[in-house]
Amino acid sequence: MVETVRGPVDAADLGTTLMHEHVFVLTPDLLANYGHEYWDEELRVADAVDKLSRLRALGVRTIVDPTVVGLGRYLPRVARVNAEVDINIVAATGLYTFDELPRQLQSRGPGSLLGGEEPMTGMFLRDVREGIGGTDVKAAFLKGVVEEKGLTPDQERIHRALAATHRETGVPITVHTNSEHRTGRLVLDFYEAEGVDLTKVVVGHAGDSNDLDYLRALADRGATLGCDRFGLDRYNTTDRRVATVAALCGEGYADRIVLSHDASCYIDFYAGAEAQRTLYAAAPNWHYEHITRDVLPALREAGVTDAQITTMMVDNPRRYFGG
Ligand SMILES: [Zn+2]
After folding, report:
1. 282 C-alpha to center of ligand 1: Å?
2. Cα–Cα distance, 271 to 256 (Å, whole number)
3. What is the DSSP letter of 95?
4. Residue-wise over 114-148: b if at least 16 C-beta within 10 A, else e?
5. How many Å lie between the centroid of ligand 1 and the Cα of residue 302?
6. What is the pLDDT of residues 225-278, one digit of tens each?
7. Under 8 Å CB-to-CB from 224, ≥6 apart: which residues?
8. C-alpha 115 to ligand 1 mean position (Å)
C-alpha cells in the first residue's frame, strides 16, 4: 500500500504516474505578508482542480509531489484540491535547501548550541508514520537536495536524517541533483555508505544531463534516473531529453527511468500576473500535459516501444513504492 493525500492506495493501482510534480510551490512568509499582491486562494484552488482534472482525463492516475519544508508544503490546501479531483497525490517529507538549514534546526541536534538528538529524524519519521502537520496524510517518500555546493555540513545532517528514516521505514528517496555538477554521484556515494537501498533512490533532475556515461553509471548502481523536467528547456530541451531517454531505452535502461515535468499548478518563484506571463512565454511547455501530448509521441518516433513507456510510467513507480 502507498500512502496518498486521500489515504492508502494499492501500489498496483497507481497506474500511469508522473514521478515529480508539485501542486503548489509557495514561500509562506512572503505569502502571509505580500500574498494580497498575487495570491487568491479560491482562484488558485479552482485552477489546480482544473489542471489536475485535465491531467486525469489524459489518463494520468497519480502524481508524486516532492513539496517539502522549504517549498511551502501545506497539506490542507492540497487535500482541498484533491477532494474535487479523482487523482492520487503522493506526499513527501524532507527538507529543501541548497545549503543551510533553517535557524531553528541549526540550533539543535548533534554539535549545535542546544545539542540533543537529530530533530529531523523524528520529524520525518512522524510524517511517515503518523501524518503531516496534524493531518492524517502520511508521507510516502523522502526528498532532499544536493546542489552545486555539494554536501555542506547542514546538507549532510539532512541526508543523514533521510537515510535513517529510510532504514527505519523502507520509504524511498528522491534527491534534487545538479546534473551540470554531476552531484548524483555524491548522492549515491553518501547513501551507499549510509546503508540505503539504491534501488529506492531517484536521482532527480538526472534528465537535465545528456552525458550517457554519467547516466549509465548512476543506473548501473541501481538508482532510477529522474528524467523529470520535460518542458524546462533552459536546463535541457525536449528534443535532447527525448534523444537521451531513447538512447538509454535502446541500451536496456527503461527499467531505471521515470518521466515527469517538475511542473506545478502555481509556483511563486514567478509571483504575479506579469511574471506568470513571462514564465509562460519563456517555457510554454512547462506544464503537466507536455509528456502525454508531445513527449510520448516523440519517444515512439525515436524508437521507444509502448512496453518501455509502460515500464517508465507504470512499472517503475510501482516498484519504487514497493509494489
Ligand atoms: Zn521539484
Report:
1. 18
2. 35
3. B
4. eeeebbbbebbbbbbeebbeebebbbbbbbbbbbe
5. 27
6. 999 999 999 999 999 999 999 999 999 999 999 999 999 999 999 999 999 999
7. 199, 201, 202, 203, 256, 257, 258, 316, 320
8. 32
User: Residue 199 phi/psi, 5° resolution?
Assistant: -75, -10
As residues whose CB is below 5 A from the ion ligand 1, the structure lists 262
Residue whose C-alpha is closest to residue 186's, from 145, 235, 224: 145
**What's the whole-model pTM score?**
0.97
CA 66 – ligand 1 centroid, Å = 6
Compute the distance from residue 21 Cα to the ligand 1 centre, in Å.
Answer: 6
Strands 266-267 and 24-25: parallel
Alpha-carbon dihedral sign for residues 79, 139, 109, 199:
negative
User: What is the tens place of the pLDDT at every residue in 35-71?
Assistant: 999 999 999 999 999 999 999 999 999 999 999 999 9
CA 227 / ligand 1 centre spacing (Å): 12
Residue with the three cell numbers 521505514: 169
CA 174 – ligand 1 centroid, Å: 10
Is 237 within 8 Å of 271 (Cβ atoms)? no
Strands (E) across the chain are located at 17-18, 24-25, 62-64, 88-90, 92-94, 141-146, 173-177, 201-204, 224-227, 257-259, 266-267
